[in-house]
Design goal:
The protein is an alpha+beta fold and 319 residues long. Helix content is 23%, strand content 38%. It has eight helices and 16 strands. The two termini are 33 Å apart.
Length: 319
């Protein structure tokens, strides 16, 4: 790797490195999540995010790519990735931010990269190395795709712990009734407020009264694929991505222009997404039922999905 000096650290050693340290690391890209859109708390803007799992002989660690690098990253052939300036996080054990302020190279012409490739092809692809990122960021768990019929047939969500999975589905109906609520205006506080009818709004949880509020979503959405249908619950960030409108704007339309409010939902229908869901048994009116909650939303990128299918076909051809 000309003009670039590295001081690579074995993945296992990252456990002993303090949060926010900047390190160099090299590993095989074992698994990759889909790109998702999240809302940055600092700016309120939508930003692309993709998670990778890196492995070497000593362990596995999860890393995150951001922005354009997340959107364009290709994992074809489980490449070697050499990262300069990865930032250490303590989210879910230890994890890495791979592109914020750093840089990376795929399949570099470097002795350590050649050693890793040889190890992975001969034994590493079958080895069960320990992850230092913990269960919260288990890539193998979070990127498993299911059809909606499989979700029911496999009774996902019926166990003691929630089940996490992804589906590729189309939105067919939004339940607009009570899909918005008035919330505490304080940043990072989303408790419901009571309209006192005099221009004041009381948050009973915080025991405070405010002269304003913010609208937030709690939206029920019906999705379908070629095997079945499912109701899912979507909170603010996921709902805004599905509807394509900010909750604040929709709340204002609801009170001032009901036709435009209805049209916003009509325009958002029949779009296809990759959805990350959590399923867990919930008790309502003494009746148990499985509740599916949407954790993240990514509108289908047909070019990227086609590349993924081609990669999977090539892997099957090698069996």
């Amino acid at each position: 790797m000309p003009n670039m000096m590295y001081d690579f650290i074995e993945i296992k050693r990252i456990e002993d490195i303090s949060k926010d340290s900047v390190i160099d690391v090299i590993g095989i890209v074992k698994s990759v999540s889909d790109v998702v859109q999240i809302t940055a708390k600092s700016s309120g803007r939508q930003v692309s995010k993709r998670e990778l799992q890196l492995v070497d002989k000593t362990g596995a660690v999860n890393g995150t790519l951001w922005g354009e690098e997340a959107e364009t990253f290709s994992s074809q052939g489980n490449p070697v990735i050499a990262v300069k300036g990865a930032r250490v996080s303590d989210f879910g054990g230890r994890s890495l931010s791979l592109s914020a302020g750093g840089s990376f190279t795929l399949n570099p012409d470097h002795s350590m990269a050649h050693q890793l490739r040889g190890w992975y092809e001969t034994e590493g692809n079958r080895s069960d190395v320990k992850s230092i990122s913990g269960m919260q960021s288990d890539m193998s768990r979070l990127t498993v795709f299911k059809t909606l019929s499989q979700v029911k047939d496999e009774k996902l969500g019926h166990g003691e712990k929630p089940d996490y999975f992804c589906v590729r589905a189309t939105v067919v109906f939004f339940k607009k009734d009570n899909c918005l609520y008035k919330a505490c205006p304080l940043e990072d506080q989303n408790f419901k407020v009571v309209d006192m009818g005099n221009g004041q709004y009381t948050c009973e949880r915080l025991n405070q009264t405010f002269s304003s509020f913010k609208w937030r979503f709690v939206l029920q959405v019906n999705i379908t694929d070629f095997t079945g249908e499912q109701w899912i619950s979507c909170f603010n960030e996921a709902a805004e991505l599905l509807v394509g409108q900010a909750a604040q704007k929709l709340g204002e339309l609801k009170e001032s222009n009901e036709a435009a409010f209805d049209q916003a939902f009509a325009d958002a229908n029949f779009a296809m997404y990759n959805l990350k869901l959590r399923a867990k048994v919930d008790t309502y009116n003494d009746e148990q039922r499985v509740k599916c909650t949407c954790l993240s939303v990514c509108r289908l990128n047909f070019r990227e999905e086609s590349k993924k299918l081609i990669d999977e076909i090539r892997q099957l051809q090698q069996l």
